[in-house]
Design brief:
Layout: H1 6-13, H2 17-24, H3 32-45, H4 51-58, E1 63-68, H5 74-89, E2 93-98, H6 103-110, E3 120-123, H7 130-134, E4 142-145, E5 154-157, H8 160-173, E6 179-182, H9 192-206, E7 216-217, H10 224-236, E8 243-246, H11 249-261, E9 271-275, E10 289-293, H12 295-313, E11 329-331, E12 334-337
Parallel strand pairs: 1-2, 1-3, 3-4, 4-5, 5-11, 6-7, 6-8, 8-9, 9-10
Antiparallel strand pairs: 10-12
Helix pairs in contact: 1-2, 1-3, 5-12, 8-9, 10-11
Length: 352
Amino acid sequence: MARPRIKDVARHAGVSEKTVSNVLNDYVHVSDRTRRVVQEAIDHLGYRINLAGRHLRSGRTGIIALVVPELDVPYFAELARHVVREAEKRSLTVLIHQSGGDREREKAALAGFGSDFVDGVILSPLALAPDDLRAHTGPPPTVLLGELLNEGADHVAIDNERAAREATEHLLALGRRRILTVGGRNDGCVGTAQARTRGFRLALSGAGLPYDPASLLPVEAFHMSDGADAVRRVLASGARPDALLCLNDQLALGALRALHGYGARVPEDVAVIGFDHVEGGRFSVPSLSTVAPDKEAVARVAVDLLLHRIEEATRPDATGSPASEHPQDRVVAHRLVLRESTEGAAERDGVW
């Protein structure tokens, strides 16, 4: 049986082919009745949009790439789900690539993997340098996630500095003063950890408290095992923190395990808060307080920005680099989600 075409849908619905096209493209000036009749014809005939033909006519493949450091990190897995969902709404297919935080892999992604099979790239970089972005003068269009490298590319993130300050202020409001930052970095580089560390320091300063470099617990990576190891090391040294600001939920979940092993009660002895609002934090014991970025908004804004740049680059009169002279820097919302690992933490018996 031949694949149904727009003219078949139009004949079945008793409308023009233009009206069917308007319905398919969600044109606003179509009556509800007409939209319903056309949709019933589409469903009855099993009509499907010919995306290959549409993309061929537009000079695009209809494929975008999402490049993240690690797919088994829950934050990136959840973000990928949202990006795929947003892309599907716009008839785009998402190729998901894992960079491992390797600079050469991230540079390859920035260059479209050396081919033209992707229309654009959404990239969450860990190792790229500003020079790498300055050298990116050709296709494909790119949107960066995470901390801004201050170069000519669109960028989407939460305000990490402000978010960490708010999380630290929450701990301070609970009366906590011996706060350690798991994963904290104060090395002057540009990155999410550095921005969150600045927020931690600003909160201390705002409360009139001194900053001690020893309050930063460095980690090799941002996995649960790294959080557990960092907390075990500091507890073995004899330190007794009364709060932990963990720079992602994986570190926080590892920290909870380490504290349990030392007999520390959470939140009575040590309050713990993380970042990213991953699903596992709801089911830990105690449940994990966290900074929740609006992941749906991150995905939606990133896909919209990228699609806009793709359309710019594929216009018949388009010239020059796909990167705009006026890159967009979009900040999306975040909120504190307060659960058992900090709530009720005011009831304490002293130093444990």
